[in-house]
Amino acid sequence: MSAPASNGLLQVRDLTVAFGRHAPVVRGLDLDVAPGQRLGIIGESGSGKTVTALAIMGLLPDNARVTGSIRLDGQELVGLSDRQLSRVRGDTMSMIFQEPMTALDPTMTAGRQVAEAFRLHRDRDAGRARSAVLEMLGAVGFDDPARIADSYPHQLSGGQRQRVVTAMALVNRPELVICDEPTTALDVTVQATVLRVLDEVLDAVGAGCLFISHDLAVVSQLCSDVVVMLDGEAVERGTADRVFNEPQHPYAAGLVATARLDLLEPGTRLPTVADHVRGAR
Amino acid sequence: MKRAELWVGLALVTAVVAMALVSFVWTPFDATAVGSGPRLQSPGLPHVLGTDHMGIDIFSRILVGARSALYVGIIAVGIAALVGVPLGILAAWLPRWGAEAMMRATDVAYAFPALLLAILLAAVFGASTETAMVAIGIATIPAFIRVTRAGALSVLASDYVLAARAAGTPAPAIAVRHVLPNVAHLIGVQASVSFAMAILAEAALSYLGLGTPPTVPSWGRMLGDAQTYLFGHPTQALWPGLAIAAAVLGFNLVGDGLRDFLDPKLREVA
Amino acid sequence: MSLFEVEHLTRVYATGRRRVLALDDVSLTVERGQRLGIVGESGSGKSTLIRLMASLDKPTSGTVRFDGRVVSGVPERDLGFLRASVQLVLQDPRSSLNPRMRVGSIVAEPLRSPLIRRERRQVDQRARVREVLDAVGLPADSADRYPHEFSGGQRQRIAIARALAPSPEVLIADEAVSALDVSVRAQVLNLLMGLVDDLGLTLLFVSHDLAVVRHVCPDAVVMQAGRIVESGPTQRLFSAPEHPYTARLVAAIPAFRSRS
Amino acid sequence: TGAGQQAPAPSGAPTAGATSAAPAPAPEETRTLVIGATAEPQTLDPTATDAAAGPQALLYNVYETLVRLDAAGDLKPLLAQAWDVTPDRLTYTFRLNPAAQFSDGTPVDAEAVAKNIERIQTGTTAPKLKNQMEVVVGTEVVDATTLDVTLSRPSVTWLFDMAGAAGIVMNPEGFDAAGSETAGSGPLTLDRWTPGDSIALKRNDAYWGTPARFDEVTFRYFKDPNAMNASMLSGQLDIISNLQAPETIDQFSDEGRFTIIEGSTEGEVTMAINNGAAPEGVPAGTGNPALQDVRVRKAITMAIDRRALLDTVWHGKGTLIGSMSVPTDPYYEDLADLHPYDPEEAKRLLAEAGHENLTLRLRPPTLPYATKAAQFIASQLGAVGITVQVEELQFPRQWIDTAMTNADYDLTIVSHVEPRDVATYANPAYYWRYDNPAVQEAVRKAGEGTIEEYTTEMRNAARIIAEDAASVWLFALPNLVVTKEGVTGVAENANSSLSFDVTTIAKA
Amino acid sequence: MFRQLLGRLGIFLLSLVAASFAIFVITQALPGDVAAVILGHGATPEQLAAKRAELGTDRPFLVQYLEWVTAMLGGDFGRSWFSHLPVTTLMAPRLGVTGSLVSGGLLLAVLIALPLGAVAALRRRQWPGLLTSATAQVGMAIPAFWAGIILVFVFGVLLRWLPPNGYVPLGRDPGRWASHLVLPVVTLGVIQAAVLVRYVRSAFLEVLAEDYYRTARSIGWTKWRALSRHGIRNASLSLVTVLGLQLASVIVGAIVIERVFVLPGLGSLLLDAVATNDLVVVRGITMVLVFAVLLINAAVDISYVLIDPRLRAREAS
Ligand SMILES: Nc1ncnc2c1ncn2[C@@H]1O[C@H](COP(=O)(O)OP(=O)(O)OP(=O)(O)O)[C@@H](O)[C@H]1O
Ligand SMILES: Nc1ncnc2c1ncn2[C@@H]1O[C@H](COP(=O)(O)OP(=O)(O)OP(=O)(O)O)[C@@H](O)[C@H]1O
Ligand SMILES: [Mg+2]
Ligand SMILES: [Mg+2]
Question: Exposure winner among A100, B246, C88, D383, fewest CB in 10 A?
Fold first, then answer.
């Protein structure tokens, strides 16, 4: 594996996470994201993708033990207190979660929740927050931001909610955005819209991105580089083109093969990971 | 940690059960023979915990009292579960309006807490352990209906019930094979908590003179009696109080421990 | 005579004061041996349709005929022939298996049903369980274990084994692979297609993943808001969608793209 | 007996024209007296029920009678300065104190007294009082201060009863509101009644006799003896009128702070035995037939160590008695040792009667002393081979219904607080179901005879029932009063008037 | 919104009817002759018959029920069998006592339980949380009357800081009113708080497990601020239910506390009436208590609508 480039935006070294007395679920993971770079993380369910993301955000539960180093803009995040971390969260880095239906507080209007993020880090003034919110809601593709801002989450569709969450994450123009399967819960048509919006806004803001998904096609659309995780370890990394076209690790190869239904004759047997892994592991 | 809670609870409950069992074969003194010993003795020998105002050995009475505590709990919870669980399952199965009517009825029943119902029944039928147990049992039925119904609703909405129906499994078999086993843990938790409540309610009723008669060794009754001598002989009230607290704590801990242990959501909370 | 004949099926759910038109005048036929895909967005009525076809729910109006006999609105005790012939595989392998039953009992459950026994006569339950577990590639000792001891893919195999146990003619798979990892999905799909071929089953395959439907089913219907908006050979739906909704659906499928 | 405890000041009963007698105490500081009591009145009308609570707080304090009972149990003038009886003992002439007036200023005249007697007879008053007044056939107002009362037959008890609730002279204006307001002529009037908590009395500034020594007298009610003790110990109370849990008396042993007065009451704690008589027109009782055998009843009496029982149940306070009579009764005779504790003799008697294996239902009411005593007796009777099943009856309803009305019991335990209640043994329908013509004859003679005849015949009746072991008289309830240091003049014995007379009490 | 309120009102009225019927049936099931009990021994058969007629116990059951209910609608709860006073007259002065006790106890319970519950949830793996939970468990296991008696002993008798029992109406002397209520309110409040802490804890734990809580933290709130901004409102949804149920047990708990502290409240009136078998009074008080509980339940249901926009909006559509 090629040595990751240094002095980037995000530098994760030898990250290990364990819960309670159980065996670690993320083991010695290294990650690098340069400013503006989009890094995809793929891997099967339970391989540690979400745990990695939460470790970077400092949002793991109390019983998690994190060792190693996570540097954001050169600042070490591991070992910071909740208070210190909270100044970074939502400001220089933010996160978009998987489940749009539950990620928003049901008792607060969407606009207020986006504004909260802004007022917390930028400007306490309600009026300026409001205009920033409306601008951001426009940027994530809403034609009538004011109406959306005054709606409660339950009055919005899944796709709309996910865009509100995106607006929350991006309203402070963070340098790093972590997306944990942001479209998995959405219908294909909605997914297409959200992905397009995400792509545009990330470009507009110029944020680096850690994009987690198990849908390889989605990753290929959004990310320039890819890390493949298996059982808490990175087993392959490289540019998206390289990983999707010439995967090295048998597991990665299997993953790519099964995902490419578009390359197969209908009705034929599907290639499985096992076909690739069998000899190699 | 969760386990610790469960273990402490189980240990306390086991102790209570053991005391009750031991009392059947052995007590240091006769737990009902009045005036057989000196009265209001402080702890010492041969009366380890002293004697009460009737000259009865307190330790013997505490041992036998464990039976009453369990008796009250078992009967009250038994009534509540035997009535509440089937009704709860039925309520989950009923069409909307039927279920609505039934749940409204349980709401009304909720307006009669155990103690109030027990007082009401005592006013009419006379105070006794049986009245108290029945009242506590009846008052606890709604809790069982709710818990069972909530559990049964989610079980009935589950895919495995859909699969069972598609496989032609008749309704009673679904209730027995799928619903009951999958709400059993909820019922267990509720039973444990209700058990604790029953013991406390019986103690309160005995204090008010509406519970167990004095001839029956019962912790609630002992505590009620002992409070008369509290200022002169504080240890009198200490032992039954501790026994009640320990039993209640035990059942509550078991209930909570079970709940936390069985509820994956609470286990993985961030 | 078609195996399934669905005529003007409508289903309205009433929750509180809200009424949801989940199925709006749907007509459909399924031929013996056909592999039919049903695609559409979440909430478009796919599950409602197949629930009605399996007579697990009553339609608001319209009829479902199976093998020439009306099955919609018929009391459960007269549905033996349907229960013996039509089996389900559902979406979430975690929730479609009773966590407190052993795998053996789960798989044997259809065999114990009085309705199915009336149709299929007595079978040696233990032997049949062993047989189907073997057919889905699970070790024989699986019967004595509980669902939580199995991985997601294995659990879906158990669900398939259960569906196969009474030797049905029709298999209905409602999002049977949607909850599975891509890698596991491939294995399960391979198994499913193999069994359908070997046993000559009719397959109703519900999914919102068009790529999977195209791979598994020669024919498909597209649903939107409780209606069937288009139907036909899957290839044609992909290459030349007629309804704009189908077109949007096809266009939205994420494709691999190179960025460099 | 009670002389030593008498207040130094004259009693509340005034002499003629005493209106201006004693000077009012210095008004600067309110002088208060707080008394802890157990039973709370349900109503402020002491004649409405036969409960003791109303008279306890109100009689002699707020309401006055023609005659009163003093601490020694003797009749003394109150509203009546004097009274005469005709030789046939059928007509009483009362001469009222002309100074007497109700708290609103209207005089207490013969007319008012006559109306009160009529009210007891025909109004909504307690059956017990109606029965007491039943002998009265007529009243005649001679003049404003003279009243004649005619009886149907001579009665020794009537005048005594007139010293109690039956004789209350209420302002006729206040008849209608008697339940919630008072209209008396006593030294105190109602200040406020807080049901469930207290009755506060205040000085009647217009009192016609010796003014009250307190500006405010409060009776506070406690269901729970422990709460009453706590109040006393914390200094909130001046007097505990009757200590309900005698075992707690040691808490007040600090002589610097408290004084304990041990007197007597009229209450006999009795274990009733169902004697099995079945008089006509009365529901048939269901007592064990073995109890009709006097040997069995004697055996039961002798099987019980009453001294030990008294120690256990009432902390050794109280008096052992051997019949339905307490030491303050004029006809009292100590029969406590008539059937002494002797379990061996008890077993012999049982064997002689052929009841070695007797099973009896002991159905005590749910009252603390009764259930305690039941436990004790059950284990003692067990020792002589009688199996006792203790079944509690809820008090009062279930007990009255089951034991009292239907005599559905073998043994039961209750305290009989009515004065001079030997007479109940003359009534075969009473729940003892005791039918003995000799007793009936003696009681009849006593009621109609002279005082001397009364005493002789009552003593006779008490002796017969004792020899017959008609019941087991466990002990006479003591009157245990606790006072704060400096409180004097509290009557030692509780008497049949049921009054807790505060007019004699002073506080340093 | 209006329709919702109307519907809730209908349910409330129906519940009242059901509850009143239940109470009536139970209190009419009395074995034995009421008249005999009221008159005591020594009553003649004529007196008994007259009493029965006066009480109306000789009429058909439903007639008696309907009369009772109609009278109640006119504010007439009947007259005590023994004191002959109207039940309303008996209850009126006691409502204030029980009201002060219950509201004081509930307020104290909430004031204690909210912060402690939050600590128990957020710090549940550290000692503050464990200690809080453990203390709450122990607190819940202690019989309330026992705790009360011990408080009386310590603060009333030994230290003499506070009156051990009794009551002074607010109107007469506010200072003494307060001093008399301190111990009972503390007893009731603390014991109820122990129960409440558990519910608060699990309500907060639920919030902690919610995605929106994580979202709130991801935009930069600290744990505590995220909980206070997004937790309390959402937790209050389930807490309001619990409080509604809790209120029932506070009211009932007050019965025992009133006995311990000799407070002339509804509870002690109820117990006195039970002791004397004054079923008219028992019936009246039970009805009032049950009415209060049902009213609270209705209020709880309505408050959901105010707290949860999802329910509010359902009405709008
Ligand atoms: N709070 C927790 N306590 C204990 N174990 C946990 C916890 N959270 C996650 N894990 C475990 O850590 C491992 C990695 O989980 P993670 O959520 O990171 O997987 P993932 O790659 O995101 O999978 P998916 O694609 O299903 O989201 C899993 O085995 C999971 O069970
Ligand atoms: N039991 C029910 N009660 C009320 N509404 C229901 C019920 N079941 C389904 N619906 C509604 O009916 C509509 C169709 O639901 P259905 O489950 O058939 O959709 P689906 O196409 O299977 O969606 P998915 O892909 O999410 O499974 C939806 O709007 C749904 O909310
Ligand atoms: Mg994940
Ligand atoms: Mg579906």
Answer: D383
Find tokens 């993301």 and name the residue.
Answer: A53
**Tokens at A34, concatenated:** 């340069």
Asked which of A17-31, B139-153, D6-20 is least confident by mean pLDDT, the reply is D6-20
Considering the entire predicted model, what is its pTM? 0.82
Amino acid identity at B122: A
**In the CATH hierarchy, which top-level class contains the domain A10-246?**
alpha beta
> Residue B270 pLDDT more than 70?
no
Question: How far E234 CA lies from chain D's nearest CA (Å)?
Answer: 43
A61 at interface of B, judged by CB pairs closer than 8 A: yes
Inspect the interface and report whether the beta carbons of A266 and C235 lie closer than 8 Å.
Answer: yes
- Map residue A6 onto helix, strand or coil: coil
The domain made up of E94-308 is a member of CATH 2.30.40.10? no
The tokens of A235 are what? Answer: 């087993």
| Total count of domains within chain C | 1
CB contacts < 8 A (D, E) = 117
Contact E218 A120 (CB under 8 A): no
Q: At what angle do helices E232-260 and E266-276 cross, to 10 degrees?
A: 50
CB contact under 8 A, E215 and A63: no
Residues 466-485 of chain D with CB under 8 A from chain B are none
* Rounded Cα distance, D499 and D449, in Å: 28
Ligand 1 atom 1 nearest Cα? B268
Q: Considering only CA atoms, which of D220, D241, D310 is closest in space to residue D492?
A: D241
- Ligand 1 centroid – CA A50 distance (Å): 7
Please report, for chain A, the start and end positions of each structural domain, with discontinuous segments joined by +. Answer: 10-246
Chain E residues at the C interface, defined by Cβ less than 8 Å, are 314, 317
Q: How far is CA E9 from CA A208, B108, E23, in A?
A: 56, 14, 21
User: Is the ipTM above a cut-off of 0.90?
Assistant: no
Nearest alpha carbon, ligand 1 atom 31: A46
Enclosing domain of residue C79: 4-259
Q: Which amino acid is at D281?
A: G
Instruction: List Cβ neighbours of B167 (8 Å cut-off, separation of 6 or more).
Output: C83, C87, C109, C110, C113, C116, C162, C166
**D262 three-class SS:** strand
Six-digit token string for D131: 């029965």
- How many Cα atoms within 13 Å fall on the side-chain side of residue C64? 26
pLDDT means per 10 residues, chain C with 260 residues, are 90 78 92 92 89 91 92 87 90 83 91 81 84 88 88 88 91 86 84 90 90 91 93 91 91 75
Write the CA distances from E97 to B112, D76, E100, E257, integer angstroms: 21, 44, 5, 12
Range list of β-strands (E), chain A: 10-19, 26-33, 38-43, 64-72, 75-76, 93-96, 176-180, 208-212, 225-230, 233-239
pLDDT at A107 over 90: no
CATH of the domain at C229: 3.40.50.300
Residue of B nearest to E217 (CA): B270
CB-based contact C16 E314, cutoff 8 Å: yes
Q: Burial, D56: exposed, middle or buried (Cβ in 10 Å; 0-12, 13-18, 19+)?
A: buried
* Structural tokens at position E247: 């209120």
Q: What is the DSSP code (8-state) at residue D272?
A: E
Closest residue to atom 18 of ligand 2, CA basis: C45
User: How would you classify the pairing of strands C202-207 and C170-174?
Assistant: parallel
Q: Give E215-245 pLDDT, tens digit per residue.
A: 899 988 888 888 888 888 888 877 887 888 7
Residue whose Cα lies nearest atom 14 of ligand 2: it is C45
CATH class of B51-269: mainly alpha
Yes or no, beta carbons of E166 and D124 under 8 Å apart: no
Determine contact, residues E100/E267, Cβ cutoff 8 Å: no
Ordered strands of the D411-416 beta sheet: D188-194, D198-203, D216-221, D32-37, D239-240, D471-484, D258-273, D411-416, D358-362, D386-390
